[in-house]
Design brief:
about 525 residues, alpha/beta, eight-stranded mixed β-sheet, seven-stranded mixed β-sheet
Length: about 525
């Protein structure tokens, strides 16, 4: 991953390939942002004029490259847009800094070192710039530029994939200040785990399946002092996990339930996280139509987010117990697959009539939720790419939040907004529950079509233990980005919800959630 350093050099003396500065959108044209004073001086005070002449406005995400003038020890100056100039005495929004740093880092792919002289008025600003730059520098190249002769020739000719920016030198922070050091260390730990989640999401399903995902989790557990327990298909059958076995029985790759337990000796609270881990979702017998299968390797994004969060909590040494549950299965059609009309007996003892085998995520989550609740955590959050209905409701960049406790839902929404992850609180209307009544079983896995995302949340609520605060994050929209990269968001897996969950764990450790 890209290295991060807190530089003691100034913008005029830093030796690097490029220097990143901020430019804001003013009423009369672009305005040079704080942090770029030395660069503006090198342009004889005319940096804003030069940028305007080149068509720059300071709009968010705008990137303008300039040859560095005499007086600077870099070759290129990158001016990145921060959006509108803040009101008097106000600082730039942390998310604007995060996105600007990400845009610049993407533009610097192939470079060895770049200085980031964006506005840093606080420790929080430094953390945001560090996060954005490291997230923006991400690239998934594991299956590109191999050792074959054609790939080697492409690389030599500059036609192959560019390596991510190798080093980010953050200017304007205080390298000897403990708070700034801690912010940088936190950014590195969190982003490395987000990028680990991204790698898992982007890995082709022929290489990532329940058993191999469990192996990755086991290896990470050993590295970071996390206790890992894996239940294979035999143990799941013996234990009565009908949801996981029912979904996974159509595949040659059997299901797994992985428990990752990070504990702190002084912890007073326990947070349980449950992730949907469908490593490939064909829809099963209720096969998805053409055009809907190609990105279904991303249906384990919830499990990837949970995995990344537990490891990040361990790396940060948070004073809270965090237990992650990865409900892993591959949903495939075969002669052994669950059929529409089958009835599954879940781990909770409830029976479920399967009306649609493509509504499989709620089945594996239900088993994992029941198992997680047996340990009586103080709160439980599940994360899943659960419904297309949530994408229709909130679009591709916003995830929905449902909960059995309004205050808990509000807290998670506020946390998500604080860390820069777009989210929206959603209801659990009681009248939609009747649509899941089954004449054969205790409940059906489908209900009314309208409000399908809320119906899925109501289904999951049936498997949450009494007295436990629970929230459900439907990340179907933002988990996988199919368009052009923007800000710090790459094409492909995004690592959605990790920042929210890590901050939730931090708040829980601090006792801020009651």
């Amino acid at each position: 991953m890209t290295a991060l350093t807190l530089s003691t050099a100034g913008a005029a003396t830093l030796r690097a390939d490029a220097l990143v500065v901020g430019v804001a959108k003013g009423a009369k044209g672009p305005v040079v942002a704080p942090g770029a004073e030395a660069v503006d001086k090198a342009f004889d005070g005319k940096l804003a004029t030069v940028l305007e002449t080149l068509g720059a406005s300071g709009a968010e995400g705008e990137v303008t490259k300039l040859p560095a003038p005499a007086g600077l020890k870099v070759l290129v100056v990158i001016a990145v847009g921060l959006g509108s100039v803040p009101e008097k005495d106000a600082a730039f929004d942390a998310e604007a800094l995060r996105r600007a740093a990400g845009s610049a880092a993407r533009a610097l792919a192939g470079s060895k070192k770049a200085g980031f002289a964006l506005p840093v008025a606080s420790v929080e600003d430094a953390g945001a710039v560090a996060e954005g730059a490291l997230l923006g520098a991400y690239a998934f190249t594991a299956y590109q530029g191999g050792e074959n002769k054609l790939a080697a020739k492409d690389k030599k000719n500059g036609n192959g994939p560019k390596s991510p920016l190798a080093e980010v030198a953050l200017l304007g922070a205080k390298p000897r200040d403990k708070a700034f050091k801690a912010a940088a260390e936190r950014a590195v730990a969190v982003v490395e785990e987000i990028n680990r989640a991204r790698d898992l999401i982007n890995t082709p399903p022929n290489d990532l399946y329940p058993e191999s995902f469990a192996a990755v989790a086991t290896a990470a557990g050993k590295e970071h002092g996390i206790k890992v327990q894996v239940l294979d298909e035999k143990a799941l059958v013996k234990g009565g996990f009908g949801g996981l076995t029912g979904v996974g029985q159509g595949s040659t790759h059997g299901p797994r339930l992985v428990k990752l337990a990070y504990t702190h000796p002084k912890a007073e609270k326990t947070l349980a996280l449950v992730g949907k881990g469908i490593t490939y979702d064909s829809g099963g017998i209720s096969l998805k139509p053409a055009g809907h299968n190609e990105t279904m390797k991303c249906d384990m994004s919830g499990a990837a987010a949970v995995f990344a969060t537990v490891v990040a909590a361990a790396r940060l040494g948070l004073q809270v117990n965090v237990t992650g549950w990865l409900a892993l299965a591959e949903n495939m059609p075969s002669g052994n697959a669950t059929r529409p009309g089958d009835v599954l007996r879940m781990y909770s003892g409830k029976t479920v009539e399967v009306l649609n085998t493509d509504a499989e995520g709620r089945l594996v989550l239900a088993d994992a939720l029941t198992r997680a609740c047996e340990e009586k955590p103080d709160a439980i959050v599940d994360v899943a790419t659960l419904t297309g209905a949530m994408v229709l409701a909130l679009g591709h960049r916003t995830f929905g939040i449902m909960a059995n406790d309004d205050a808990f839902r509000t807290s998670i929404h506020e946390i998500a907004e604080e860390v820069g992850e777009a989210s929206w609180p959603m209801p659990l209307p009681a009248d939609l529950r009747k649509g899941m009544d089954s004449p054969t079983a205790d409940i059906a896995n489908m209900g009314e079509r309208m409000g399908g995302g809320l119906v899925a949340g109501l289904f999951l609520q049936e498997f949450v233990g009494e007295g436990i605060a629970w929230a459900h994050l439907d990340i179907a929209g933002p988990a996988f980005h199919e368009g052009a990269p923007y800000g710090y968001t790459p094409k492909g897996g995004t690592g959605s919800a990790v920042r929210t969950l890590v901050k939730l764990a931090e708040r829980t450790a601090a006792g801020d959630l009651g």
